[in-house]
């Protein structure tokens, strides 16, 4: 039983330590800790403590865990329910049955759970949580995210159904039924799946990476940093070359200040990116700050406008008013510039480019769309791989993510 408590508590601590800002992670840690109180209750039952301590811990476990599981599922599932849950309205309404159950126990002066009454609200909470998790998996379109949601379903849903069957239903029919020896098998199953997946795919944003030695880790970081710097040099030198070409073809005194400003920005960006590479054996630095997404899009587009004009590409811009982003402006501008430059590579003369910034509920979406040749289906699954290389002559892609990937 002690191992049961320690494993649940350790899992909760790991989730919080990995990303305390993630609301789904915080609620997952919450219900894991509340579930651990069930093991604490059984430990107290076997100790010399008064029996009332066992009843209190058991009551907390029985009324808090269903609430935590359901709120976690609502937040994790996303969509309108997650937005409503984050605003706090739904959390308050869902807290009413557990609060009423606790009030009823206090009025009775008996903390022994009323299992028929628990069955009436706790079982629907668990079943609704299962339905939300399964629905979030079915409607997910991103392959990587879909795999993560499937792992969450495999870890949680069978165990939650086991809790409903062996705790709430069985205890409501047979109050003296010893459920724990049966339900423990489900917990062992969940821990085994989670332990396996946390090393291979990651679980709820937590992934354990094993390095062979410090040299291997250093060489990997060096390769990533060098690739990023090489990519930045290519992009910024390309911008400088375009501006120089524009200056040569421009009439005297016409637009030179603008082209010189482009060269100045490109040089400054190159120096800043180079400064962020600590050395050949360290990761590059991230410096997040509040930044305006429309300004970043405009700045990334500025050095490419002459090129789009020469290609006969029509550029349509639509930027909604949004809140500032908390991101690294240098790297985000770099990423936007990569997509825009590769869109130019992917389009023939007379193409159309649309850049858009819009608000979708609680998210800010930066969109770049062109009418290029599109992405080959066999490469679509690999597009988010870091520093994906692509051999020349295999066709141009709609957003250029493979023609000019990060680190190319």
Automatic annotation (TrEMBL):
InterPro entries: HATPase_C_sf (IPR036890), HATPase_dom (IPR003594), His_kinase_dom (IPR005467). The chain crosses the membrane at residues 59-78, 90-107, 119-138, 150-170, 182-204. Pfam families: HATPase_c. One of its GO terms (biological process) is phosphorelay signal transduction system. The keyword Transmembrane helix applies. Residues 228-403 form the Histidine kinase domain. Keywords: ATP-binding, Kinase, Membrane, Nucleotide-binding, Phosphoprotein, Transferase, Transmembrane, Transmembrane helix, Two-component regulatory system. One of its GO terms (molecular function) is ATP binding. SUPFAM superfamilies: ATPase domain of HSP90 chaperone/DNA topoisomerase II/histidine kinase. This is ATP-binding protein. The lineage of its organism: Bacteria, Bacillati, Bacillota, Bacilli, Bacillales.
